[in-house]
């Protein structure tokens, strides 16, 4: 009998029983007031009159009226650059202990996002909240004695000017509680290896020494690691190496496009739990098995706002127009795409994180990530969000019984007319032709999206599909950003990036 596991499970069940449906709106009001009070004497707080906002009858409304929207570049150029000059109390009291490096999904240059000690606590608290939610998933007692493979970026953080720098997954892993370290794999020594391929090689070599019960990480990199372990041990599926694997906590991107190829690596179904950990904070996690939607963490140092995702409100570079309307959590509606804004204990204010979300349950504050503001293909009025693209690819997988876990698309002029060119990744031998896939993909999008159908009858003249091995996508990320961690493939490419990608494909085919 798993005695220790029974004790842990019992403790989690008790903790879970005390987690009632949060008063999300009230939580958010308290969080906003707390953020403003703590930052009122910073340079940012004085400039935008946080004290006056706190004295207003409607704090949320006054906050909206006085503080503009910011994306990373605006925050960096107007405020955060002062931190790098050694100044304190800029957008949050004191100086941040860490900077999260993120190339995001659009550029080569790393963003340097402040991560304060309060944010480390916030991320840890959200992680504990998710662990307590396991009481809702009815896991067996022995599951809680198994080890957890957390596949993120290197924990070998770089010291610079009195702070440490690295990707958020590496920062988080380097701050795991002491009581959890015995469960954490691949362990401190392997996790510090900077080179992704070398780190995965060590994981594969040591895999059979571990009793892994859960996986955590971005789907594309997790899938690549699992394939390496399977190949190294010359087995058919990952359960031949880790027979007690039962849970995968996904994060960073929608899991649905990877589901078919991911499950093909298993011998039996596993429980998939979605999380939303961004470089700017741990924002949401799945709290119950009846849905794959995630509940916003509304009481943990992050204040959320929501701008309706309409083309008229978005600038060509993906930033928000300052006159775009905004809603609080009390005003949102179900099944409407919103651009997500956050204000946090790391000193981000009305900050465009770049993701779009939709509420699946307003009362529970449960959401789905639907795409990125920059991954919105509307060159000729097609109005394709990543969510719609993902669904169309899933339909292709089901229609032809194939695995297509990765893709990127661009609007390209061919002989003077616009076409959507899809580069789709797969490692399968596929009998269906690229032309047949293009025809089916086009039909799926027409049937599901009125705007796309109208565009196809006018300025959008055709669809082309190019099938590529998955290695191309992995190596592109390695060449232009960095393998592993929070790195994600850009789903929509502009003209310049598309030309770079096609040249990269030619050189690496």
Architecture blueprint of SSEs:
Blueprint: H1 3-17, H2 24-39, H3 43-47, H4 50-54, H5 59-66, H6 72-84, E1 98-102, E2 111-115, H7 117-133, E3 147-150, E4 158-160, E5 163-166, H8 168-173, E6 184-185, H9 188-191, H10 196-206, E7 212-217, H11 219-232, E8 247-251, H12 259-263, E9 271-278, E10 281-285, E11 294-296, E12 302-308, E13 337-344, E14 351-361, E15 366-372, H13 386-400, E16 406-414, E17 417-425, H14 434-448, H15 450-456, E18 460-468, H16 470-480, H17 495-508
Parallel strand pairs: 1-5, 3-6, 3-7, 7-8, 8-9, 17-18
Antiparallel strand pairs: 1-2, 4-5, 9-10, 10-11, 11-15, 12-13, 13-14, 14-15, 16-17
Helix pairs in contact: 10-11, 13-14, 14-15
Give a structural overview:
By secondary structure, the chain is of the alpha/beta class. It folds into 3 domains: 24-118 and 292-372, no CATH class; 138-280, Rossmann fold, CATH 3.40.50; 386-508, 2-Layer Sandwich (GMP Synthetase, Chain A, domain 3). The chain is 36% helix and 22% strand. The protein has helices at residues 3-17, 24-39, 43-47, 50-54, 59-66, 72-84, 117-133, 168-173, 188-191, 196-206, 219-232, 259-263, 386-400, 434-448, 450-456, 470-480, 495-508; strands spanning 98-102, 111-115, 147-150, 158-160, 163-166, 184-185, 212-217, 247-251, 271-278, 281-285, 294-296, 302-308, 337-344, 351-361, 366-372, 406-414, 417-425, 460-468. An 11-stranded mixed sheet has the order 6-3-7-8-9-10-11-15-14-13-12, with helices on both faces. A 4-stranded mixed sheet has the order 2-1-5-4. Strand 7 (212-217), helix 11 (219-232) and strand 8 (247-251) form a beta-alpha-beta unit. It is globular, with a radius of gyration of 23 Å. The model is unreliable at 1-12 and 14-20 (pLDDT under 50).
